[in-house]
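Slide 14.
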Amino acid sequence: MCKLKNQSEEVFVLAFGYARYAFQRYRNDVYRLLPRAEAKRYIGHGAPSQKLFFTDNREAHRIFREAEYLKVSDDGELILVQKGSVCRGYLFKPAVNKYEQAFEETTSYCEFYCGGGVIVLGFETYKTVLYRGKENKLYELNDRFLTVEISSEDKVFVTNAANKSSVYFYDRGMKQVVILG
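Slide 15: predicted structure.
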């Protein structure tokens, strides 16, 4: 399995072919790239190393080499890479056992919540909802929201846009979002 495992360690190493990058826990789910001199202490000296595969390995190698921060979802399905004002999201595709770039946003702030097939991305001024559809493709609800609230079972979520609120239900079996009102 080439999916990134959730890290409980303070430092972990990502491998792209022969290149290795050490990331250190910065805050709860945020990791920062260690400078090369500091990373040498961990690379090859007991820190767990995980080899990841991307649909475009060369581009991913360049992006991770320049990354400032890295965020990983609990299930390892989504990786956010922050570099300056650009946030890139990589989503794991089980069919090909690789990560693929799912989105790129220009923002200085990016957060996410993953649960049961629904992914909520929060940026500086809005939130957007992505969900897994048929064949594990990622779909986006066609609106930008001020707030998104998800139920404890990760099936029902409520959104608030400029002048309207909506309630959605994510059907895991059918892999689709149904508008309830």
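Speaker note: The helical segments are 36-39, 57-65.
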